[in-house]
Design brief:
globular; 10 helices; 16% strand; 10 strands; alpha/beta
């Protein structure tokens, strides 16, 4: 099982679904044999929905910031599932009977879905869980050997995310440009870099809680991080630009 996680903005960058990009993923499934599970994020649409509902949430929940935060998370999760459903439907129509697509969006990453399907989809799970963590829970449930995170950066840099807290974009850009690339590391090395606990304002290449889960699976699981264009090379075990995390 190849588990591939990408942000919603990959397939819906500006309020409209990019079917050309979705077809690229579908063709990837056709060209490189194997089973696939796609974890789809919310992206820009998620933020638009959350921000657009803010006044309604205040009217409904008053000044209870905890409840408002929870409601925003739930709206974000719903958006990821809508994105996942759109891509799932497109895959089914585009691939026809050639490749079997599981007809429903997986709602619980801790439970393995039975059936002899080639492609599965899921969105977010519940508040407090990032899609990085969802991906790792799915890896455990499906006994996956490979997980792929499509990133908006080229390669993981040797900079502790906590060091970047409070820095503006220009400062972060300068720090990262001077830092060494991490082309390959162990799961322990990733945990040492990002920590194990989520910190507010953290700008991290991988969710610390997901990295901690990786330690449980380190003997069998390899993580690949890189841009979308590098995914075919990752799947074919060819040299690529990005980062590999393994035992």
């Amino acid at each position: 099982m190849n588990i591939i996680k990408f942000g919603g903005s990959i397939v819906n960058p500006d309020g409209k679904y990019d079917n050309k990009v979705i077809e690229e993923f579908a063709n990837l499934v056709k060209e490189i044999p194997g089973k696939y599970l796609f974890v789809v994020g919310g992206g820009n649409i998620c933020r638009l929905v959350q921000n657009g509902s803010q006044q309604y949430l205040k009217d409904a929940l008053g000044d209870n910031l905890e409840q408002i935060g929870l409601a925003r998370d739930e709206l974000g999760i719903a958006t990821t599932k809508i994105n996942a459903r759109y891509v799932l439907n497109y895959f089914k129509n585009y691939l026809g009977n050639e490749i079997k697509v599981f007809p429903e969006v997986i709602t619980d990453p801790t439970v393995r879905v039975n059936g002899s399907y080639d492609v599965y989809f899921t969105g977010g799970w519940k508040p407090g869980c990032s899609t990085d963590k969802d991906m790792m829970l799915l890896a455990e449930a499906f006994n996956a050997e490979k997980v792929f995170k499509i990133s908006d950066f080229e390669i993981v840099k040797n900079v502790k995310p906590t060091y970047l807290i409070g820095k503006n974009k220009e400062e972060m850009k300068e720090i990262l440009s001077k830092a060494d690339d991490i082309k390959e590391t162990t799961w322990q090395g990733l945990v040492d870099l990002v920590g194990t606990e989520w910190v507010a304002g953290l700008n991290t290449p991988f969710d610390p809680r997901a990295a901690a889960l990786g330690l449980k699976l380190e003997d069998t699981l390899t993580l690949y991080i890189g841009r979308k264009e590098q995914i075919p090379k990752m799947l074919k075990n060819e040299e690529f630009i990005g980062t590999v995390v393994k035992c």
